[in-house]
Structure formats: structure tokens, C-alpha cells
Amino acid sequence: MKVLVADDHRLMVEGIRRALEGAEDIELIGEASTGSQVLPLVRRLRPDVVLLDMRMPQMDGLTCLDQLRKACPEVKVIVLSVFSDPERIQAAFKHGASGYIVKSVNPLDLPSAIRQAVEGTVFHAIGLPEVDEKSLGKAAGLTERELSILKAVAQGLSNAAIGKELWVTEQTVKFHLTNIYRKLNLANRTEAARYAYQHGLVESPLVEIA
Q: Strand order of the sheet with strand 2-6?
């Protein structure tokens, strides 16, 4: 996999280079230090993946991401950011990011994160701090039961399986799911699972690999 890094901090770029050195299947082929350099470099070098900083001089990360999605939809874009708040993470995924990595992530996890993004198996931010579920549930307006059902959905359980696990009827599970969708402004189970991954409610495959 050919990777282009777009980050205006030299120290960060060198850290990424070192983190990827041991990965035989990943090659760092170029660097951009401003947002305006990214698209021309991608067109010239044709990377498989762009590691894109959210805050870049001359053009911000989301604008850059929009340009890449329109001009080079085959290129996977992984957002790199110091921010771990759900709003920014959701914005990155809505703009078409294939992954979101918080800059505090363990460098050893970077190659795995890139592979997940390329394979399309990542719906969550990587490198987030530990989540306080009760606080998150309270902030989102979810009850403890709704939080349990949301986590179960993200783990791939059917309504019948959730009902059996929580000792409630399948109809009750459906009722709670309707409330969850309404409170979080979600349309379906896929969006619910993505929300749970992005907010760290369910352990990512990356954690299990490590």
C-alpha cells in the first residue's frame, strides 16, 4: 500500500515515517505540508491511502477531504487529528473519511489502522481515551437499557438475540431501538453500530489484534 502523509508538523511526519518503517506491506511515498498541495500530489503519485491532518495551512482538512472524494474517490483517506470529540469524528466520516486516528494513538497501532481503513472494516475512531459510558449515555439522553441495546446492535446481535440476553421480548427491543434512533437521529442498525464504534462503546477489532 502506498501512503501519502499530509501534515504541517515535521515531528508528526517523522513519527509516522518511523511507525511505518517496520510494515513490509506499507510504503510512504510522499508528504504534503499544506492543504493546497494534497490534491496535486495525489494526482501525481497515485497513493492508495492519504493520512490527512484535520488542521492544515491554506486549506482545512474537511475541505481537502471533499476535494479528494470528488476527484479521486478510489483513494482512501484517513483523518489524523488531536481532537477526540464525537462531533469532529462524525463530521470526518460524513465527509467520506475511511478512518479517523487520534494523534495520541500508540504508533505501533498505525499500520493496523491503515489496513483496516483500506479493507473498509473501520467505523470508529482509533486512539480515543477510555469512555465513561454512563456520562456518554446521559449526554445522549439514553437510558442504561438503551445503552445496552445500542452496544448489542454494534456487536451484530439480532433483536431476538438481544431480547434473550436482556430477558425482554423482541417487541420491547424494537421499541427501545425506535427510541435510540430518534434520540441519536439515526436511520438504521448500520448507523447505530457506527455511532457505537465512533464513540468507543464497543471495542474495535484493533484492540483485539493488539
A: 27-32, 2-6, 49-53, 76-81, 99-102, 125-126
pLDDT digits (tens, 9 = 90+) for 110-162: 888 888 877 775 555 666 655 566 666 777 788 889 989 998 998 888 999 99
The DSSP call for residue 75 is S
pTM, full prediction = 0.62
DSSP structure class, residue 76 = E
Q: Which of 157, 202, 205, 201 is nearest to 177 (CA)?
A: 157
- Domain 2-129 bears CATH identifier 2.10.109.10: no
CATH of 133-198, one of 3.40.630.30, 2.40.128.50, 3.30.70.260, 1.10.10.10: 1.10.10.10
DSSP secondary structure, 109-158, as one string: GHHHHHHHHHHT---SEESPPPP-HHHHHHHHT--HHHHHHHHHHHTT--
